[in-house]
Amino acid sequence: IATSEWAGAWDAPCSQERARGHAGPVTACTFVGSGKLCSASRVDHSIRWWSKQVEPLGSAIHRGLTTIAGGIPPDGVLVGDGHGEVWNHSPSGRSMGVPVFKEPVMALLHDGGASAIAAARCGTLQRVDLSRREPPSVLHQSDGYRDQLGIFPGLVRGTCWSLWRKHMRDGMQVFLSRVAQGSREKILHRSRMSLSNVGVSRDGQTIC
Fold this sequence. Notes:
Largest sheet: 5 strands, antiparallel
Structural class: mainly beta
Oligomer: single chain
Helix content: under 10%
Number of helices: 0
Radius of gyration: 17 Å
Order of helices and strands: EEEEEEEEEEEEEEEEE
């Protein structure tokens, strides 16, 4: 299963019948904690949950959504929007949104429990408590000169892999770094070659 921004392997049997889906193009997909699929469309602002047989299980509308990611189990999905807020949706309802940025959320990942890590296009990364018991904490503050491409699960909670690019004196370069709460960002790889995505193992120890 793939969109322009995401791809994942699904070994479940699929029906040949066309399921009732979105009114616009699917722009994002993710798996939730129960293994079900969730899809979203920025065009019609819709979110839909699907069984392993591609049968519709529920839907929601979130105007201005920009990105989704697997959320609080079993069926929660994280939603970032153009107002810079992060939400957790499920077929039974949604949490109260948490304001994070003053610009759209471009990427999200679930960080265990009620926590998430959110990224803005400028490169700022914040850890968010969806229960709203604690304010968002900054993992990395943007210097205003980088373009964030994605974030990926790290080894432990409060960490992530960060993929970004920046214009240097000798041209544009792409960087892969490790970001951890309470410590400095560590750059692990840099390249002048175009790099738009990476893959991470389930335990977060291997990245390619």
